[in-house]
Amino acid sequence: MKILKLNAISPVADEVFKGYEYSDKAENPEGIMLRSFAMHDYPLGENLLAVARAGAGVNNIPIDKCTEKGVVVFNTPGANANAVKELVLCELFLGGRKIVDGANWAQTLKGQENISKLVEKGKGKFVGQEILGKKLGVIGLGAIGAMVANAAIRLGMSVVGYDPFISVKSAWMIDRRVEFTGDLSVIFKTCDFITVHVPLTPDTKGMFNKDTLASCKDGVVIINNSRGDLVVSADIADAVASGKVSRYITDFPDETLLGKENILCVPHLGASTPEAEDNCAYMAAKQLTDYLENGNIVNSVNYPTVTMPRDSAARVCVHHKNVKEILSKILAIISSQGINVAHMQDQSKGEYAYLILDLDEVPSAACVDLIRGVKDVIRVRQL
Questions:
Q1: Architecture of domain 1-79+273-303
Q2: Which one, out of 65, 275, 285, 369, has a CA that is 20 to 30 A from the CA of 79?
């Protein structure tokens, strides 16, 4: 099989892809590995089965188009969590203390006389605040948000978290001293620092806007390492200029934000560590190969999680619409061929579903073609 890499990927993936044709020149690939490459205008070939994003965000991938064609899109939630957590902790300190401003000012003293006296005279312009005892609001308590909340507790902050979709796994990870709220306005109104860790969706786009910023506690520090469009740039710039927001730190520079006082633009460094890049590449490669070889789906953003160990003569995997009676039609075809189903699992995600059938006999090509012909079946693979 062929795997096309559309970005530079950590070499730890090379070991996983032994036996595959894996390069940046692979033609008509079954799989794609990428990081930030914009795929929206990229042609999805007929052979393409899956796309693996070595990272969490997938707004550079045409999810709907992939889903309609039965192309599974994977991401790697949590693989870069520690790297982003450490950057957020750094930015908490930078948000409270005017370290960057002071360091940049100190550079202007080069060549002047009595630098030590100038430093003592000028340092008052860069007085900041400590984070000890301050309240941090964490919006989104997935892998990154949970780690940030726990670390902030250990640094002596009080922490309130908001996540209406929190997983059981994340909930168990979070320090019992973290306060939970089901009302997002509580975070806006009461927190000295706010950090956001949610995906970009129609519901979250522009969640930091003129109205929500006006409801914030005066002098709040806002940190955004999730997606730029969660924040309306013009509105946050106005809020910083007025002093309502004392500092905005973002991993997503844009024309509106650059060059503004008390806005610190970081060049998308959240996962820019060799450790995070290795973790993301390995996780993406393992998920991609497990799907290509075994049909198992884990950490897909467009199809449900479906995994089964392989211990039967044959496996058939079916992408289909989530509609009534389709499963009975597929099973009727299998039964009509006199083949026993040893194991099966069918799960849905919104309008789409995915079925794994483990069979006691290898089905004929004609049998597989009959399944392909069922209305609302999108793709069938025999493994």
A1: 3-Layer(aba) Sandwich (3.40)
A2: 65
